[in-house]
Write a structure and sequence with these properties.
globular; 8 strands
């Protein structure tokens, strides 16, 4: 999928959700999205406590190459303004053919299907870019993410010395 591609889906009470690649000019929207997440959602996604992204991290998250590092945002229109309600990304790893992913959805949109739409776009694009495996690291207390990953076909495995996280992987 190219950075100008756009997918539109209607979810929850006729709300149109757009799924599109993130752009550099989305930095303000991305920062607002992170600020709006609950403390728990931020912690589950980043495994750290903070309120907003540093300028360096914000640049990293929005200025991507659309192949080795890809990100999709889910947006809706609210008061004539585009509002981010979810994001999913992958980044290539040191292991050839493998990428690590993350997905986050605004708390108000949990269970709406947004995460699935984002992940379908992400998985399809990773496959098109030649990745064979998509991996993730999840906190054991993040039951929603573990259930979501299992439903999508991810398998869990343990890594020696890392009992505080669950590693998941999907063969693309």
């Amino acid at each position: 999928m190219k950075k100008q591609d756009l997918i539109k889906r209607v979810l929850l009470k006729d709300t149109t959700v757009s799924i599109r690649p993130i752009r550099a000019d989305d930095s303000g929207m991305e920062q607002d999205f992170i600020r709006h997440l609950s403390k728990e959602s931020r912690y589950f996604r980043f495994m750290a406590s903070f309120r907003e992204l540093t300028p360096k991290k914000l640049k990293y998250f929005t200025e991507i190459d659309y192949a080795r590092h890809m990100a999709f945002v889910a947006t809706i229109m609210s008061d004539d303004k585009e509002l981010e309600i979810g994001v999913a990304r992958y980044v290539n790893t040191e292991n050839p053919g493998s990428c690590e992913f993350g997905v986050t959805v605004d708390d108000a949109w949990h269970g709406s299907g947004v995460a699935g739409l984002l992940m379908t776009s992400l998985e399809d694009t990773a496959r098109e870019c030649g990745f064979k495996t998509m991996e993730g690291i999840v906190l054991p207390s993040n039951d929603k993410m573990l259930k979501f990953a299992q439903k999508r076909g991810f398998k869990t495995h343990s890594v020696s010395g890392e009992a505080d996280t669950v590693h998941i992987a999907l063969q693309l």
